[in-house]
UniProtKB/TrEMBL annotation:
Keywords: Repeat. This is Rhodanese domain-containing protein. It comes from marine sediment metagenome. Gene3D superfamilies: Rhodanese-like domain. Residues 1-79, 110-231 form the Rhodanese domain.
Length: 243
């Protein structure tokens, strides 16, 4: 499971480079092994892709769609767990050029060379909820709203019903309509950064935007920190300066 293998067990951080290398070794994965990622929802596959990218593994592919797409196409499935033989996987240097923290987001709120995109539901963006409306309990942050200057792009707008990606021309049009340019830095966030990672994958690997990043603290961090500026459309509140 990606949470158990890619998240740090106690901190809100990711698996260490050493632990990542050990995971690859015992899984029979070498540096030149191509990993194909899929999940019940494509956002979790792209999230794993993003984390593995930071830990230095570059040979990866995403199954274009959620797991049901494979099943509904009549493709074979199995419950058999493959046997693997441990191999050598040296520790690689961490590359966090695809990641940005809260301080980096805060310092660039008025930067015209940056496009900040909120991938959550309309209700989350407007400040009516802190989690998607299909969650039985609305939880995840102290406050509701969005980061000042963030433009809204509901992540499902990039996907077909089976969660395969929409045509490149459609994706490119949506990004350009929001002001994306090849030389701009694109920063994506959502509630926990899963949906943000999916948009990052689209921007960097399908559309070729070189300066795409994920704010992985996302709203669960930003909406819970004292003094961070927010916009809440539902309350009619404008930007609140940070102290």
């Amino acid at each position: 499971p990606w949470q158990e293998t890619l998240w740090h067990p106690t901190m809100r951080e990711f698996v260490t480079p050493r632990d990542f290398a050990e995971l690859m070794q015992k899984s029979g994965i070498r540096h030149d092994t191509t990993i194909v990622l899929y999940s019940n929802s494509i956002q979790f596959a792209t999230y794993a892709f993003w984390v593995c990218t930071m830990r230095g593994h570059v040979n990866m592919k995403i199954f274009n769609g959620k797991r049901d797409r494979w099943i509904n196409a009549g493709q074979p499935i199995t419950r058999e767990v493959p046997k693997t033989k441990a191999v050598h996987y040296p520790i690689r240097a961490t590359d966090e050029s695809c990641r940005i923290g809260r301080d980096g987001v805060l310092s660039g709120l008025d930067n015209p060379e940056r496009l900040l995109l909120d991938m959550r539901t309309p209700e989350e963006y407007k400040g009516e909820r802190v989690s998607p409306k299909w969650f039985e309990v609305d939880y995840g942050a102290v406050r509701k709203g969005h980061i000042p200057g963030a433009k809204h792009l509901f992540y499902t707008k990039l996907l077909n019903e089976d969660e395969s990606f929409k045509p490149i021309s459609n994706l490119d049009k949506r990004f350009q309509e929001l002001g994306a340019l090849p030389d701009k830095e694109l920063v994506f966030y959502c509630r926990l950064s899963h949906r943000g990672s999916m948009a990052w994958f689209v921007a960097k690997y399908l559309l070729g935007y070189p300066r795409a990043k994920v704010y992985d603290g996302s709203w669960t961090e930003w909406g819970s920190i004292v003094g961070m500026p927010i916009i809440n459309d539902a309350l009619g509140k404008g930007r609140i300066p940070a102290h």
